[in-house]
Design a protein that fits this description.
Oligomer: single chain
Number of domains: 1
Radius of gyration: 11 Å
Strand content: under 5%
Distance between the termini: 16 Å
Shape: globular
Number of strands: 0
Order of helices and strands: HHHH
Helix content: over 70%
Structural class: mainly alpha
């Protein structure tokens, strides 16, 4: 398993209790992971997604990001 995939799985697990729309977040994270080539490009894509997302999905993505960066 790649470093990126491993970090994503851990962050999703840790963030799950705090995310309101978990299935939507997981779907979006999976889409971004497919486009990303490494951790840095994934973070770039995720931050771009957060910029355009609307609440409460935006907050869910921020919670995931916080967990992801803490790993």
């Amino acid at each position: 398993m790649s470093e990126l995939k491993n970090r994503i799985e851990k962050a999703l697990f840790e963030a799950r209790p705090y995310i309101e729309y978990f299935d939507n977040v997981k779907k979006k994270i999976d889409e971004l992971e497919e486009k990303a080539t490494d951790v840095d490009s994934f973070l770039f894509l995720l931050n771009k997604e957060i910029e355009v997302a609307e609440e409460p999905f935006k907050t869910d993505l921020k919670i995931f990001l916080q967990k992801f960066e803490g790993i």
